[in-house]
Amino acid sequence: MGPLIALVIAIVIISAVVGAIAQFLNKLNEANVPAQRRPGAPRQADRDMDRFLAEIDRLRKKNADASQQQENEPAARPTAKPVARPVERQRERERPRERESERSRPRVVAELAEPPVRSVKRVKVEAEGFREQPP
């Protein structure tokens, strides 16, 4: 039981040391990274948003101009819609009556035939038990 406890304690100590080294390296890396953004410069996302809003305004103005042009144009004269005329239905052709000879002729019905029964002879074998032997 002694070596098992020592192994668990060693693993805990090693993980604590590795964690401390990782934290130290992260803080060191953050201190060395220069500021990528100047305090007065707008962020990229702000510029993208401004461009998007400008595009929306441009499209609204374009649609407003198009609607004013439509108001200035004379309205098209309404035309009468064509009315569909009712069409007389044609009678479906009556099927020709079957001939009397075809109706009275008896139909042939096939019956299922049973497969032949295969006889199997069982032979007792000492080592294997029973086995089937073909006739």
Strand content: 5-15%
> How many DSSP-defined strands?
2
Structure annotation, total helices: 3
Bin the helical content. 40-55%
Low-confidence runs: none
Main sheet makeup:
2 strands, antiparallel
What can you see in these coordinates?
- The chain contains three helices and two strands.
- The model has no long low-confidence stretch (mean pLDDT 77).
- The protein has a two-stranded antiparallel ribbon.
- The longest helix is centred in the N-terminal third of the chain and has 31 residues, at 2-32.
- It is mainly α and 135 residues long.
- The chain has helices at residues 2-32, 44-72, 100-104; strands at 121-125, 129-133.
What labels would you give this structure?
single chain, 135 residues, mainly alpha, two-stranded antiparallel sheet, 3 helices, flat
